[in-house]
Design brief:
Layout: H1 3-13, H2 29-32, E1 33-37, H3 39-56, H4 64-68, E2 74-78, H5 83-153, H6 160-174, H7 177-196, H8 201-221, H9 225-245
Antiparallel strand pairs: 1-2
């Protein structure tokens, strides 16, 4: 009967994640049992003792404890559990427990925030490296293309305009400007969310997925070993952020 009350208290203070709550109840043995005396039975035993005393001249050594040991004189009865009172008490204790839990989470959240912000600087570093490498990739492609044409055509004059056209097509194909701009935009949004606070875990999770999508696109466009290495580093930091935001409400 306490389950719904506990759920309501916890959901008031926690909105994300899985929480297990244990409630232990141990009623006091003294408070939970009432001893009552069956007066009619007791009087019958007392009367019988007096009758024996008078009739046979025996000493009446009857005592309270001996009477309480007589059948049906003392009766024990357990108190009925007051569910309303217990529910109120459990609600109060659960709220105290959840508040303490949240204080711990707030302390941990501060460390997570600092860690994610540090990873944002690393993301920017790798995005800058991607942006710097992209033109080099296009130049290297042009040089390879020129060398290949010279090898194939040998002494024949090479059409420079055709090389420029091919290089331009390649540059457009491998351009990552849109992706890097979006990643920088996502980084700014992430920092703003962490600054504002509140319930942002799911938003951060979604944002981390967007980071991964852009990084994958960059990786699919690049056919350069160095670019590939940078993208691997970029993805590694993004995955670390994705793991961290799972712990954030």
């Amino acid at each position: 009967f306490l389950e719904e009350t506990v759920k309501n208290v916890v959901s008031k203070w926690v909105s994300r994640g899985k929480i297990e709550v244990g409630v232990s109840f141990e009623p006091s043995a003294v408070e939970n049992v009432v001893i009552s005396v069956n007066n009619s039975v007791l009087e019958s035993f007392v009367a019988a003792a007096k009758e024996i005393e008078n009739k046979y001249g025996l000493k009446n050594d009857i005592s309270v404890m001996s009477l309480l040991r007589m059948p049906e004189v003392a009766q024990s009865q357990k108190n009925e559990l007051n569910e309303d009172e217990l529910t109120q008490k459990v609600a109060e204790l659960t709220e105290l427990a959840v508040k303490s839990f949240n204080e711990m989470r707030l302390h941990e959240g501060t460390r997570l925030k600092d860690d994610i912000l540090q990873k944002c600087f690393l993301l920017e570093k790798f995005v800058t490296a991607v942006e710097a490498r992209s033109p080099v990739t296009v130049l290297a492609y042009r040089q390879r293309l020129t060398a290949k044409l010279k090898e194939v055509l040998e002494n024949t004059a090479i059409d420079e305009s055709r090389i420029l056209t091919e290089a331009a097509i390649f540059a457009d194909k491998v351009s990552v400007d849109e992706e890097t701009v979006r990643i920088r935009s996502h980084i700014a949004a992430l920092r703003e969310m962490l600054k504002d606070g509140g319930i942002i875990g799911r938003k951060l999770d979604f944002l981390a997925q967007e980071f991964a999508r852009e990084a994958n696109t960059i990786g699919s466009k690049g056919n350069d070993i160095e670019m590939g290495r940078i993208v691997v580093e970029l993805k590694t930091e993004i995955e670390k952020i994705r793991e961290q935001v799972q712990n954030i409400e």
